[in-house]
Amino acid sequence: MAALIFILISLTAAVFHGAAPVRAEDATTPAPIEINGDTATVEVKLYTDENHNKPLGDTAVTSTSKLYGAFSARFISDKAPTPRNYIAVYELPDTIVIDKNAGGDLMEGPEATAEKAGTWEIKDNKVIFTFDKSWLDKNPAEIFVGANFSFELANKNAGSDSSTPIKFPGAGSINIPTTDGAVKGEKSGAFSQGADGVAKVTWTVKLTVESYATNVKLTDTLGANFDFVDGSFTLDGKKLGPQPTVDGQTVTIDNLGNLSQGKHTITYETVLKSGVSAGNGEFVDEQDASKNTATWEWGSSSDRQSGSVTAAPSKFRYDMIKKSDGSGSPSDISWTVALNQGELKVDMSGYMFTDRLDDKQTYTGGYTVYKGSSGSEVLATGALDPSQSSFSYTFPTDLADKHATYRIVYHTKMNDTSSYDTVRNNATIEREGSVSGASEGQFTPQLVGTPITKRLVSSDEAATTGRATWETRVALKAIVNAVNPGLVTVKDTFQSAWSQNLGVDEGAITIKIGKTVLVRDADWKLTAS
Question: Angle CA(23)–CA(25)–CA(29) in degrees, nearest 5?
Answer without folding.
Answer: 120
